[in-house]
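Bug report

Summary: structure tokens for Roadblock/LAMTOR2 domain-containing protein differ between web form and batch submission.
Environment: batch mode, default settings.
Steps: 1) Submit the sequence below via batch. 2) Compare with the web form result.

Sequence submitted:
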Amino acid sequence: MKAQAPAAYGLSSEARNLHWLLTNLVDEVPGIRSVAVVSSDGLLLLSSDPGAAAAALPAGQPGAPAGPRGSSADLATIVSGLGSLTTGAARLMDGGTVKQTMVAMEEGSLFVMSVSDGSLLGVHATPDCDMSVIAYHMALFVGRAGHVLTPELRSELRKSMESAQ
């Protein structure tokens, strides 16, 4: 799967760099189906398929997303909900901060990792993916992206996602 970047024209260099990091993650790591970066309030900031307008098309129709049903907005919702659930569970169990969550399913895997200030990185992967490789590359992304996700950049990314739809 090739990641598609929204029109990067007019975006700040920080936003373009984050898009590049996400595109690189998707294109270079085997087994990744889709990726979403979600803000602490559950809004989609970055996605491996920012042309999510095609997600409104029924599956199988030209232009509809390939793979399992679900656009990047669906992945963002799932990532946000899972992040909230695991944070609540950690709080109840005095477990400290949740660093990573992994759900292994029959037909794929879902990984969620904290980025910064409550933002989350979610990766939907194939069932035969190498989980340690995906977790490693997610940690690299978090290390590179976490310190630049300022409130201003989050706002810019939200606006770029809204305009891509």
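Above is the batch result. After comparison, the two runs are identical; trailing whitespace caused the diff. Residues 1-7, 52-69 have pLDDT under 50 and may be disordered. The helical segments are 13-28, 72-92, 131-145, 151-164.
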